[in-house]
Amino acid sequence: TYAPKLILLDISDINCIQDVAKEILNCYGCVDILINNASMKVKGAVQSISLELDKKIMDANYFGPVTLTKAILPNMISRRTGQIVVINSIQGKIGIPFRAAYAASKHAAVGFFDCLRAEMEEFDISVSTVNPTFICSYHRQPAPGNWEASIWK
């Protein structure tokens, strides 16, 4: 039994993920189950959401989980065991109005992890994608002109 260790990670900060993965592997030696369960979303018409915000959503919902998974994966492959779980969204299967960036990031995640599932079968590594319907998330009301405050986390 290992004592729990709190390791803070901003999943949208791609540059720090590799170091965090190394810290986890140095502390525990391996990861048996990786659960990717971080997400950001914003509600708005496509023309009103900046490309900067689209990229931030993609970093948190797609590149973050992909980067963390790729950092942990070699350890799982070398041990020929492990489980990767992605808590995604029904919007990774269908798009709805005013959620284009979010739906696009979730579609990308579904595609990546579906391919990974097929590739990891030979190593006995399980890859699961969970796509729940709408859930109640933490939300802050934005100040006028403050798009960052309109992000759901």
UniProtKB/TrEMBL annotation:
Pfam family, one: adh_short
Keywords, comma-separated and alphabetical: NAD, NADP, Oxidoreductase, Signal
GO BP: any one term: intracellular calcium ion homeostasis
GO molecular function: oxidoreductase activity, acting on the CH-OH group of donors, NAD or NADP as acceptor
Annotated signal sequence range: none
Family: Belongs to the short-chain dehydrogenases/reductases (SDR) family.
Record protein name field: Dehydrogenase/reductase SDR family member 7C
Native source organism of the sequence: Smithornis capensis
Gene: Dhrs7c_0
